[in-house]
Write a structure and sequence with these properties.
By secondary structure, the chain is mostly helical. It is about 50% helix and about 10% strand. It has a 3-stranded antiparallel beta sheet with strand order 2-1-4. The protein has a two-stranded parallel sheet with strand order 3-5. It is globular, with a radius of gyration of 16 Å. The termini are far apart.
């Protein structure tokens, strides 16, 4: 049932957001060199790596590490990168990953391929057996501000308590937090 819900919602969202996504793609292309999408190696279900798309918010010469590990993340942002990140519009292409089945609407956010500490803690707690999500319990409880062990505890809570009702709550709170731009530090 969850996969059917994810596919249906992602497909409807793609149709509704098609024009805004095309406008964002055009803005990305007009304001910086490089491709419109950034394809990031991410850790998915059962620790399998998949390619996750985002609208590109960083210059093409940015190192492939978590943004918080950069000495000066702002230096690497494109002219519209900060806006796309704070509004979470950079995440919209992940609807493609949901349609493909690499991601779910709700689940733990997919780790970067080189976030070994996060992957190891999630694996120890069985979280690696969840399909990663566009949003999740950790996302609405701190997002970028959470230390990895705390993020994993929120992911573990979701693993133990997942339900359609909890997913609906997370989706609703995600919209509220995105509108307020809560928890985005880069």
């Amino acid at each position: 049932m969850k996969r059917t819900f994810d596919f249906t919602v992602a497909l409807m969202a793609m149709l509704v957001l098609l024009v805004p996504m095309l406008m964002i793609a055009l803005l990305v292309k007009l304001t910086s060199k490089g491709s419109v999408l950034y394809w990031s190696d991410r850790v998915g279900f059962n620790n399998e790596v998949f390619m996750m798309p985002k609208f590109r918010t960083m210059r093409v010469d940015t190192p492939a590490v978590a943004t918080h590990l950069l000495a000066d993340p702002g230096y690497f942002l494109t002219p519209i990168g900060n806006f796309l990140r704070k509004s979470s519009f950079d995440e919209l292409p992940q609807l493609l990953s949901i349609l493909k089945g690499d991601m779910s609407i709700v689940g733990p956010r997919p780790a970067l391929f080189n976030q070994d500490d996060l992957v190891e803690l999630r694996t120890q707690k069985g979280i690696h057996l969840l399909t990663p999500g566009l949003t999740g319990w950790a996302q609405i409880n701190g997002r970028d501000e959470l230390p990895i062990p705390v993020k994993v505890e929120f992911d573990f809570y979701y693993l133990k308590n997942q339900s359609f009702v909890l997913d609906c709550k997370i989706i609703t709170l995600t919209f509220i937090k995105a509108l307020r731009r809560d928890g985005v530090s880069h």
